[in-house]
Amino acid sequence: MIRTLTQVRQKISTILKEIGHEQEPCFITQRGQPIAVMMNIEQYNALMDELEDIALENDPIVLKRVQEARANYAGKEGIPLRDFIAQQGEETKINEGKKNVPG
């Protein structure tokens, strides 16, 4: 759906209902040029989730950890989930202690 800025100003509630029902974004133009996009919150959240996934997939730290995990799994060097969770709890306690240390 494409609407002019004038149309959006005049019929905002109608356009918002259309966006919600049709699951289609609304492209807003001014003087024939696109200036904004309105979409329902579900579409927005899905888009943000997808972008976050893409960003994580390309994060060098995440990639390194995934490679290490795969290597550990292939080499049977993994640890049981309950042990991992226990380690994370201990690390959290240590890190919280560091935050409370003055200096």
Structure description:
A 3-stranded mixed beta sheet has the order 1-2-3. The chain folds into 2 domains: 2-39; 59-99, no CATH class. 66% of the residues lie in helices and 14% in strands. The chain is an alpha+beta fold and 103 residues long. The mean pLDDT is 80. It has helices at residues 5-10, 12-22, 41-57, 60-74, 81-99; strands at 2-4, 26-30, 33-38. The longest helix has 19 residues, at 81-99.
Key structural traits:
103 residues, alpha+beta, 2 domains, 3-stranded mixed sheet, 5 helices, 3 strands, 14% strand, elongated
Show unreliable segments: none
Task: Quote the distance from N terminus to C terminus.
Answer: 58 Å
Quaternary form: single chain
Mean of residue pLDDT values:
80
Number of domains: 2
Major sheet, described briefly? 3 strands, mixed
The percent range for helix content is 55-70%
